[in-house]
Structure formats: C-alpha cells, structure tokens
C-alpha cells in the first residue's frame, strides 16, 4: 500500500512526527467518514479519521448556502445507528443537519485529526466524497468581467445582491435554489439553462416524490415508474418547456441510474419563472466588461455571476492508484460493488445515491475490515513477539 499515495518531500516527511495506528485510516470527516467510523466503533475496531479542514462536514459548514435543506425526507438521510431527532422536520435545515452530525460524532466518540493528511496505510478508507472540489467552467471573457464572480460554494445569501442583475450558471438543484433565493431577496436572477433537465415536484399528493418512486420500484419496472412520475409531474407542474426548460428523452430514474444526473426537486422556482421574476436564458457565448452575450446573440448588462456548476471528486490528485478508481475519481465498479478495492483500499460515499448510499458502503466496509482485524488480533495474542499492523499518517 505504500505506493498508493503521493508522498510529500522526503525530508519534510521525516521532519514530522508519525504515529502508528493499529487499524484503518479514514480520509475525510464528512457524513461518509463519520458513518464508517461509527460502524467500525460498533465492531470494536480502532481507527483514525483524518480531515484536511479544521471541522467535521466542512462542505456543509462552509460551502453551502444559508437556505439549504435536505432534499429528501430525513429517514432516507440518517446515518447508521442513529436516527434524526423526532422533533426535526421532514426536511431538516442546514443547521439541523450539522447539529445532527456533531451529535453523531460525540455519540460514537469520533475525534478527527484536523488539518492532517495520510502518507501510507494498512487499510485506507477514502471518504472524501463526490463533492471535494468545485468545478470552475471555462467561459470566454469571464476573467475580464468587471462584476463579482462567485462559485456556489461561496454563496451564502441573496441579501447582498439586492437590486442587482445576477447570472446564475447552472440549473441543477443548487442553481434553481440560488435563483429562488436571489429572487426572494429582490435581485433579478437570470438562470442559464444549457441542456435538458428533469424537474419534479418535491412532493406528490403529500408524499415525497423520492419515497413514492422508491415504493413503486418494489413492484414495477423502472421505465413504468418513470412514465408514471412524469405524468403526475405534468399534472402538478404543467408543461415546463413553456418555462424554457426541456426534458431529457430518458426518464428521471433511468438518467440517474445511467448517468448519475439527479433530477431537480422544485420548491417554488418554477412559479417565479412563470411570473417573470426569474428569467431563463440560453447558453453563454462570452462575457465582456459589464455584460454577457448569449448563444442566441442577445446581450444584457449584469452586476454579478454565480457559478452553480457543481463539484467533483479530487481522489486522482492525491491517490496513486489506477485499478480501483477511474480518472474521474469514482470507483470503476458501479453501485453496489464500488466500496471495496484491493490491498485494503475502500471507498465510501461515491455511489451517486446520496447519504443512503454512503451508509450502505459504511456498513459493508466496517464488517469487511472487522473480519480481518479480529482474525489478525487473535493471531497476535497467540504469538510471544508483538507484531503491529501499521498505518502511518503525517501529523
């Protein structure tokens, strides 16, 4: 396993103190890393969690907007061994979810080592997730634009954009919600829709759309469920193409399973589009000093740009490994087989199935490591000479 990691400068490595850990190293203290740690704790296996930031769930705490809530019902988002508090709403807020994660860490005595990185390990659990770094698109003239440019990871509230014209690049869940937030704070958002996207109501007849789909998939083939969802969506949301948003030819669930593209769950954005408070615009051709030109030739003056262009895995930048992970930073094997590699390498939270997928991975990883760890521990007790499994982490 020593060759799996990009090592720091040789002299720098030995100038730092190294500790030897008789168990797995978990890289990342987000929900995926915490879930794995809790499952290992339940199995009685020692571990160390390393986090490059100085807090748990840094994505949630530092790179999300204020109005964010969980998009799915809480029962589909809870981590192993601890449900959400009963008094939490069906869709917990950002603050409530962070409180839940901090309670989770305390309950299972998870104390990450912050501002740290791993050098080599006997067992390595990659829990850095699908959203480790933001995607910055290349748009002609963006670097010369005189207005403010921020990625969605740095956007907190539309309050400071009051009265301004703002281009929102991206029409996923973040782009839709940021456009709505800007509108609610009396800004004038222009949402760029470059490709087709499925927009579904968050609830259908009082039931979570996700929960309804999950239930139907137990009895019906996927394509039938897709058709049923789209028919119900048409009755509830109407024809969204009149809003300038085209639907993909593949159904929402098929697209999610094949491409990992999550459908947008509408929480009021379409209504604002229909009444003209949010403008849908086509792809951008170029930016100039203070204006933007679209592919249809139209130009408008704008004050700011919010890049709701998503995130990606950063695994290829630090893990020297080519058999388990592909170049895009995801395991080569699709769900549910992408949690285990060779030589003690594991991945959690790369399923494109949200928190429920991360929980599934975490439980499998903990059971798999526990079998080997307990067997090796038993063998060590039978020997007179101590022999330690070693994980070396740079502190």
Automatic annotation (TrEMBL):
<dbReference type="InterPro" id="IPR050982">
    <property type="entry name" value="Auxin_biosynth/cation_transpt"/>
</dbReference>
<comment type="pathway">
    <text>Plant hormone metabolism; auxin biosynthesis.</text>
</comment>
<keyword id="KW-0521">NADP</keyword>
<dbReference type="GO" id="GO:0050660">
    <property type="term" value="F:flavin adenine dinucleotide binding"/>
</dbReference>
<dbReference type="Pfam" id="PF00743">
    <property type="entry name" value="FMO-like"/>
</dbReference>
<keyword id="KW-0274">FAD</keyword>
<keyword id="KW-0073">Auxin biosynthesis</keyword>
<dbReference type="GO" id="GO:0050661">
    <property type="term" value="F:NADP binding"/>
</dbReference>
<dbReference type="GO" id="GO:0009851">
    <property type="term" value="P:auxin biosynthetic process"/>
</dbReference>
<keyword id="KW-0503">Monooxygenase</keyword>
<dbReference type="GO" id="GO:0103075">
    <property type="term" value="F:indole-3-pyruvate monooxygenase activity"/>
</dbReference>
<dbReference type="Pfam" id="PF13738">
    <property type="entry name" value="Pyr_redox_3"/>
</dbReference>
<dbReference type="InterPro" id="IPR036188">
    <property type="entry name" value="FAD/NAD-bd_sf"/>
</dbReference>
<protein>
    <recommendedName>
        <fullName>Flavin-containing monooxygenase</fullName>
        <ecNumber>1.-.-.-</ecNumber>
    </recommendedName>
</protein>
<dbReference type="GO" id="GO:0004499">
    <property type="term" value="F:N,N-dimethylaniline monooxygenase activity"/>
</dbReference>
<keyword id="KW-0560">Oxidoreductase</keyword>
<dbReference type="InterPro" id="IPR020946">
    <property type="entry name" value="Flavin_mOase-like"/>
</dbReference>
<keyword id="KW-0285">Flavoprotein</keyword>
<comment type="similarity">
    <text>Belongs to the FMO family.</text>
</comment>
